[in-house]
UniProtKB/TrEMBL annotation:
Recorded GO MF terms: CoA-ligase activity
Protein name in UniProt: Uncharacterized protein
AMP-dependent synthetase/ligase domain segment(s): 9-137
Organism: Dinothrombium tinctorium
Entries under PANTHER family matching the protein: AMP-BINDING DOMAIN-CONTAINING PROTEIN-RELATED, LONG-CHAIN-FATTY-ACID--COA LIGASE
Protein family according to the UniProt entry: Belongs to the ATP-dependent AMP-binding enzyme family.
Length: 278
């Protein structure tokens, strides 16, 4: 069965008493909000989440509403598969973690420029090696040379850190970082703030070119919840974010209301498509 809306997915989980499921963070948040309209259900036992950064507050709210026995994040990509997973024994603990390396997989954190391995709690590039990882790109030796380090680890382009117990924590996708006036702005931080507003159903932030030479300006695309279209303005959301962030993280590129956010086939926000919207 294919569901094109979160409401359809909610009904499927409920009507079929689904016990184990996989979803992206935006769906977790949507199911939280749908519970106020459609009620809840208690069949879910294990929930695995991946695809984007997940707010711990959103995770805790989901657990409060649906009461699963296990809720965990994993990390992965097309090139690496899923090299980490939170142990089942951890249950509802350590919600921020993307898990530990699974059997046969190695994960390290390296400095983006020097390639040196970094100690626990230092953010750098997530690099993966193991049986799940691709052998390379067909007929593209230049890409292969750029994608693997001298120890054979795949260079993910994602930022994160490990703790002293080997848990991985995803931070952001390096290629999605917005560069404003020399400062780095992570879109996920602004998205989390917007999602906390009572009127916001979904939000995505990208960087747009600044004609005045400051690099990129953070711009938000927002889906409002039903009933808020005539109540909340773009300026209200800009001010809401500005009150919670430092000067270089403000939504200088503005806010655009859209009926829905285009997503990839696996549920991630399609940021390339947003770049083409006016």
């Amino acid at each position: 069965m294919s569901c094109e809306t979160e409401s359809c997915f909610f009904d499927y989980l409920k009507n079929h008493s689904v016990t184990v499921t996989f979803m992206v963070p935006s769906t977790v948040n949507a199911l939280n909000k749908l519970s106020a309209i459609k009620g809840t259900f208690s069949s879910l036992k294990k929930v695995l989440v991946a695809g984007e950064a997940l707010s711990e507050d959103v995770a805790r709210e989901f657990i409060r509403i649906y009461k699963p026995e296990y809720f965990g994040q994993t990390y992965g990509s097309s090139e690496t598969g899923f090299p980490t997973m939170k142990p089942i024994a951890d249950g509802l603990n350590n919600l921020k973690s993307n898990g530990v390396p699974v059997h046969g997989q190695q994960v390290k954190i390296s400095d983006f420029e020097s390639n040196e391995s970094l100690p626990p709690h230092k953010i750098g590039e997530i690099r993966v090696k193991g049986s799940q990882v691709t052998n390379g790109y067909i007929n593209n030796p230049k890409a292969n040379e750029a994608s693997f380090d001298n120890e054979g680890f795949f260079k993910s382009g994602d930022a994160g850190h490990l703790d002293e117990f080997g848990n991985l924590y995803f931070a952001y996708r390096f290629k999605e970082i917005i560069k404003y006036d020399g400062y780095a702005v992570a879109p996920t931080e602004l998205e989390f703030i917007l999602m906390e507003h009572e009127a916001v159903k979904e939000a995505a932030v990208i960087g747009i070119h600044d004609e005045e030479g400051y690099g990129e300006l953070p711009k938000a695309f927002v889906v409002l919840k039903e009933g808020f279209a005539d109540i909340v303005s773009e300026k209200a959301l800009i001010d809401y974010v500005s009150s919670q962030v430092c000067f270089y993280k403000q939504l200088r590129g503005g806010v655009v209301f859209v009926p829905k956010l285009k997503r990839t086939t696996i549920g991630k926000i399609d940021r390339r498509a947003l770049k083409n919207l006016k």
